[in-house]
Specification:
Shape: elongated
Largest sheet: 4 strands, antiparallel
Strand order of the largest sheet: 8-7-12-13
Number of strands: 14
Distance between the termini: 47 Å
Number of helices: 17
Strand content: 5-15%
Length: 455
């Protein structure tokens, strides 16, 4: 059954399936031939009897009634009953039937529908290869018909055919629609193949399987997947500022410094990450809008107990807090500009001094071997994540049902991550081979199309 809303591709797919199925029927397959015609104004729709060795095997009356049933059956696939009479009595060939259906949905193949190519975007749950084939199909359907002449170029009696150059241009559009940076990445990663005259459209299958890896390798998507310190340390006291022991007046108003248009936004923590890990990490934003989890930053700011004594750290913290003027006990404090009193340059320098002896390395995220619905699956423990995520392939393997939803989330590196849907119920994870059994429950989990960490 067709629905009220159909697209050009869905109608073409239904048309192909319909022809393939009813070509096997001995009564209806004659009406699917290109030369088959009929007319309501003639007796028996203009059908003639079928003879074999001068013996009538099928009368004209039977063929007329079969044709009427065939047209009614086509109309029965449509959710519009008012089109039945128009199809049964107002058509003279199968092409007329198709024209009525396509015109009613408003998706006739014309030069106007060719312009929809620009608006084609990758659908949720669609693979990169499927997206390319959809773009290619739209281009193939809109090739010029027969005997079209433009600036001395003729399409010929059979119309234009798909060419390799047109497929290359479709592949270029495909790369640009996935990510504008992908074209330059392909020029770098596949430079040898392209110099050897391998056509871009020939590289599409290999590129489609490695798009996410290529983007991640060039730091276009994703970010720091995992940070680990070479020596185990504590992190609680280093990146923290103690509040004054005396509570402030609740009516006090804290004044924040006015924004200056001449000062560029700068995040010292992300700048420290970029220098320490030698990665291209964006640090041109204010610390309040930093997209990276605090837990990942705190791991770099750990190690105080192995570098300095506790009293030294307390003195360091007290120096920051106690730099504000103290008032007598009988006086109420004035609104205090806490932000302006902190010397961020000095604070950042001290943090770097604390970290000078700590070596940082990139390491795989910790994993647990778990059972989900009696299926063994490795689960990554990411302390920096704010969402419980499940890969779509794991969800399918473990029979995890989810509600499709068109939503996005912020991934590492301020990149937008598309989510396929939300799991309505809790996911129970049984840690594999533990005594006693350990059960983990994931609440409000989401399903991501391609979920992988960088390292």
């Amino acid at each position: 059954m067709l629905t009220v809303t159909e697209t050009l591709h869905s109608l073409n797919h239904w048309k192909t399936s319909f022809r393939t199925y009813y070509r096997r029927d001995s009564f209806f397959k004659a009406f699917l031939l290109p030369e088959a015609t009929w007319s309501k104004s003639q007796v028996n729709y203009g059908q003639t009897e079928d003879k074999q060795n001068e013996v009538t095997v099928r009368s004209a009356l039977d063929k007329g009634e079969d044709l009427k049933n065939f047209l009614s059956m086509i109309a029965g696939y449509l959710p519009f009953p008012y089109l039945t009479e128009k199809i049964v009595e107002g058509t003279k060939s199968l092409q007329d039937v198709g024209d009525i259906i396509y015109e009613h949905y408003g998706i006739n193949v014309t030069s106007e529908s060719l312009l929809d190519y620009v608006a084609i975007q990758m659908n949720s749950g669609e693979s990169y290869r499927q997206f390319f084939d959809r773009l290619l199909s739209h281009s193939r359907l809109h090739l010029p018909k027969s005997n079209v002449v433009v600036d001395g170029i003729e399409s010929g009696p059979g119309g234009e055919k798909m060419t390799i150059s047109l497929m290359n241009f479709v592949a270029l559009d495909w790369l640009n629609k996935i990510n504008p940076h992908l074209v330059n990445i392909i020029k770098t990663e596949y430079s040898k193949e392209l110099r050897d005259d391998t056509q871009l459209c020939q590289l599409v299958p290999g590129i489609a399987n490695n798009v996410d890896a290529l983007l991640s390798r060039h730091d276009v998507v994703g970010g720091v997947g995992k940070l680990c310190l070479s020596n185990p340390v504590t992190v609680e006291k280093v990146h923290r500022i103690k509040q004054d022991k005396k509570p402030h007046n609740r009516k006090s108003v804290y004044k924040f410094p006015a924004k200056s248009s001449s000062v560029k936004p700068f995040c010292p923590e992300c700048h420290f990450l970029a220098r320490k890990l030698e990665l291209n990490i964006d640090f041109q934003h204010i610390p309040a809008a930093c997209p990276r989890p605090r837990s990942a930053i705190n791991m770099l700011l750990a190690g105080e107990e192995e570098i300095a004594q506790n009293d030294d750290v307390d003195t360091y913290e007290d120096d920051i807090v106690d730099s504000r003027p103290h008032l007598p006990d009988n006086e109420d404090p004035e609104p205090y500009d806490f932000i302006n009193e902190i010397n961020y340059t000095e604070l950042y320098s001290k943090v770097l001094m604390i970290q000078r002896n700590i070596q940082v390395r990139k390491e795989y995220s910790p994993q647990l071997r778990t059972k989900i619905n009696n299926v063994i699956a490795d689960s990554v423990v990411d302390e920096g994540s704010e969402l419980n995520c499940r890969c779509s392939s794991v969800a399918a393997k473990c029979n995890i049902r989810y509600i499709p939803a068109t939503i996005t989330a912020m991934a590492a590196g301020s990149n937008v991550m598309s989510l396929l849907g939300v799991v309505p119920s809790d996911i129970e994870l049984l840690v594999y081979e533990t005594k006693p059994p350990v059960k983990l429950i994931l609440k409000n989990a989401v399903v991501v199309k391609t979920l992988a960490h960088r390292f």
